[in-house]
Write a structure and sequence with these properties.
Elements: E1 5-7, E2 16-20, H1 22-25, E3 31-37, E4 42-46, E5 50-58, E6 61-65, E7 69-73, E8 87-90, E9 95-100, E10 104-112, E11 120-122, E12 128-132, E13 139-145, E14 155-161, E15 166-167, E16 172-173, E17 175-178, E18 182-184, E19 186-194, E20 199-205, E21 212-218, E22 221-225, E23 232-233, E24 239-247, E25 256-257
Antiparallel strand pairs: 1-22, 2-3, 3-10, 4-9, 5-8, 5-10, 6-7, 6-9, 8-11, 12-13, 13-14, 14-24, 15-23, 16-25, 17-18, 19-22, 19-24, 20-21, 20-23
Length: 270
């Protein structure tokens, strides 16, 4: 298996099925975990030097930090229900505890921070949903923790792509700390596929050709994007969902399209 991809395993301690740390990824900013809990199970952790965005991918839970409790949150039972998620922002220097009220799939998104903000609930109505692209390049984007929302490092979005369509397309990249032309952002893609026996295709490649991998990505897999362009294709009959987590030295998303393909979509929406 490619070093850029990792599949979820069986639930371990506190339901952990998938973990990416800066150390295992070989980068500096983004951490990502997925927990699968049964009703009545729980997990707890210190945020330490990271801010955390807890995304309830599916299921209901009560989430507590040191200062506040968000009881009985969550609405969708599948990422393919067509509604945005509930999420909780937890600052650095805090802790969180999650009690599953139903079967729960929880994403834990992490990036370095100083603890300058307060914990808060992000409801579906707090997110912004937009349609991007057209024709076979169309997809629906849910902005969970976008640049316009308060955070120190994290950017978190989810993308829904119908079978037969492409997303993160035309191919774009954000691997240069060269503002205002481009920002450096590490990124993870957590993929779900419907029906789950399917797959999607993701290519990760750079201008020099030193990185060029085309991956068959299965349900409950994470793809690491340390650099380069990273388009996704959903085969006919299989709908794609992915959760994107990005972070870098500056919290801004300024990307550059692959100049060979930019003619496909000059509006620069990816």
């Amino acid at each position: 298996m490619s070093k850029l991809m990792k599949r979820a395993g069986v639930p371990g301690d506190q339901g952990l099925v998938l973990s990416v740390t800066p150390e295992t990824a070989g980068w500096k900013y983004v951490g990502f975990k997925v927990h699968q809990l049964q009703a009545g199970e729980s997990l707890a952790a210190l945020t330490e030097h990271n801010e955390v965005c807890l995304v309830l991918l599916s299921g209901r839970a009560t989430v507590a930090t040191e200062q506040v409790i968000f009881a009985g949150i969550g609405e969708r039972m599948s990422v393919f229900d067509g509604i945005p998620p509930y999420s909780v922002y937890v600052p650095a220097g805090d802790r969180y505890e999650v009690q599953a009220l139903t079967e729960l799939e929880l994403a834990v998104c992490l990036a370095p921070a100083k603890g300058q903000l307060e914990a808060r609930l992000i409801t579906p109505s707090d997110t912004g949903t937009e349609e991007r692209g057209s024709g076979s390049m169309s997809r629906r984007v849910v902005n969970i923790l976008p640049e316009q929302s308060e955070a120190e490092s994290l950017l978190v979005v989810e993308v829904h792509t119908r079978g037969g369509n492409w997303s993160s397309y035309p191919p774009h990249k954000h691997d240069q700390d060269n503002l205002p032309e481009e920002s450096y952002l590490e990124e993870t893609y957590y993929h779900r596929v419907n029906p789950p026996q399917g797959f999607v295709i993701q290519r990760v490649y750079n201008d020099s050709g030193t990185l060029d991998e085309t991956l068959a990505v299965y349900d409950r897999s994470v793809v690491l994007v340390p650099e380069g362009y990273h388009p996704v294709s959903a085969p006919p009959g299989y709908d794609s969902y992915y959760l994107n987590v990005m972070a870098g030295p500056v919290r801004t998303w300024v990307f550059r399209n692959d100049p060979q393909h930019e003619w496909l979509f000059p509006a620069r929406k990816s």
